[in-house]
Amino acid sequence: MSRKPTRDDVARLAGTSTAVVSYVVNGGPRRVREETRQRVLRAIGELGYRPNALAKSL
């Protein structure tokens, strides 16, 4: 069984920090350039990343 993709995996593929991945996924608190946002969304799609709902609720 392969492991689930993480925020780190998305950041590495998109060439950003994990904070930027979080900003894109959560809609803030900081604005992200559209070009960067698209790279992150593309990486999320390629990897099949899904945020952990339990972790988000903490």
UniProtKB/TrEMBL annotation:
Top-level taxon in the UniProt lineage: Bacteria
Keyword Transcription regulation carried by entry: yes
The keyword Transcription regulation appears for this protein: yes
Every HTH lacI-type domain range: 5-58
Molecular function GO terms recorded: DNA-binding transcription factor activity; transcription cis-regulatory region binding
Keywords: DNA-binding, Transcription, Transcription regulation
Pfam families for the chain: LacI
Protein's UniProt name: LacI family DNA-binding transcriptional regulator
